[in-house]
Amino acid sequence: MIHKLITLPLFLLSVFILNSCSGPELIKSNTSKSISEIHVIPLSEELLYYTRTNNPNADLLVNNLKKISSVELVKQLPYDAKRKAFWLNIYNTFVQRELAAHPEKYKSRNTFFTTKFIEIAGIKFSLDDIEHGILRKSPTKYGLGFIPKLYSNSIEKKLRVDVLDPRIHFALNCGAKSCPPIRYYDWKILDDQLHIATKSYIESEFRYDTINETIYLPKVIGWFRGDFGGMHNLPIFLKSHSIIPNKISIYQIKFNDYDWKMQLYNYK
Fold first, then answer.
1. Which pLDDT tens digit goes with each residue over 62-115?
2. Phi and psi dihedrals of 89, rounded to 5?
3. Calpha distance 7→258 (Å, rounded)
4. Nearest-5° angle of CA 148, CA 153, CA 157?
5. Which is nearest to 93 in space by CA: 67, 122, 130, 140?
6. What is the pTM of this model?
7. In this structure, are residues 202 and 241 in contact, taking their beta carbons and an 8 Å threshold?
């Protein structure tokens, strides 16, 4: 018999955090600030909000991102919480912007992910640069999370996280139907946000075959299993997020199919 395990959510915390992500608090729009006044994390939240609401001022924010200096960019992202919040917002924003304008690009996904079409601080980044170079701390894309890249450029080293957080896989939306929903990420409450995003996404796909003692997990975990400490540590990760009870014995892990059909505007 196959069951979906349903655990009680952290209801009050979830309501507070998810409500806080309904949109950025804009004290003064980044569209009206000079380059010297720009703060990149609020700008990333505002840009995602304008993209979601189809606000034409989004283009002004994109131009401000281009003009800020690389020195200032590094300075404003001094530690991992700020780096993760900024780059998660940027990644999710530019996927939506690019595919909304050019949906045909999704037909060649490898080209879409590797083309450097995101310009920030005078530097052009690809989606892969952001995901694998910055947020995953420079492993090879196809090494299951176990093989580091032989070379990383200086800007990647300055901008990437110090410690890989596997929960980013449940926050990145690449435009596919199987991707997690898009939220605004705020560095001040990021740990709680990532915990909820992780728990809700895995629970939506998690199944436990009690007869064969097999669990079924999202495909993205299988692609990057090394980010989670390898197959033998996956049960520990799941139990630490209260996705499965400690008493469950697991003999086998399988991964669900991934639906690559394009699906935009999947906002939470």
1. 999 999 999 999 999 999 999 999 999 999 999 999 999 999 999 999 999 999
2. -65, -40
3. 24
4. 70
5. 130
6. 0.89
7. yes
